[in-house]
Amino acid sequence: MSINALTEAIKAIAQSLQVATIFPSLLFMLVHIYIIVPRLQGFFKIQVDTTAPPTLAIVAALSLIMSYALYAFNFPLIQLLEGYHPSSRRVWKAWLDAKRSKFRNLTATIKTLKTRIRRIETEYYPHSAHTDPTWQILSTELFRAESEFEYTFPSGESLLQPTTLGNIIAAYEDYSRTRYGMESSALWPRLVPILKERQYLDFVTQEKVVFDFLLNTGLVTVFLGLELGYLTLFLNQPLLGGGLILLTLVAGWVFYFGLTVAADQWGMTVRVAFDLYRDELRKRLGLRVADTFAAEHVRWQETSRFLHGRPGEYDKYQIFELERERMQDKSNPSPTSRVPPTA
Hints:
mainly alpha
């Protein structure tokens, strides 16, 4: 293995071993070595030297293994908290029904506010309705309702998830499609190299690390709390065990609330990435320039379909710049530009 290859391998390992996975793993192992194992030694009448070098080496090795496991299972863990998997819908049914009810109520509120604002504007026509106090109040309420809807729900009821976290993530994943016609699953991987060149990807990664830290630390905290609570009950200390379990449930709720806030901040960086760098993505993909925003929306829809399409369907897409025609125009100048032949 060359020095460059070894350097890149070490760099990749260092990047994957982030505080978002290392700290929860060390916390898990240290609590077991210095709290749980000593309490079990007296009950099972065994003796383990927790300060011996072999024990510390095992703790370090297990911490690394657990860190990589958290890194590898990051996506399934997020999906679990989203309630995304179809087989879990029966478990989350009551939660999903509640989200549907809130979605419909908020949608109806927005529709009602728009109707009332439109009625006031019709009454004031051709004069300005912006000076009417009722119009100003309704406009403020509409802005708040639409902002709440955009950041907490996806655009369609069929995209709803059972949990608040799932809907926040679905909302920012749906943003690029509803706003620009860009399917994030097709275009985000092609946008990432541009974000890396522009050093914007660091902002996205930073918010994702905060989210992962809360996710992994919360998971380990809840697991350790339940384990310690059960162990305390097993050792005939019911009051302390019940208190630990109750405290664990409170801690789990706090971490979940922090996850929703972190997901909102993470989603904001993704939204801004599409807002700022979609035109540069258009240039990299060789797409036509859109004359209007509506034309841009259609073009990105066609691009998303093209990237998700099958071979043999390319001819029906008219979204790319005609590079071949430009090259032919350069090689075949117009007759008026040619030098007439000499006699």
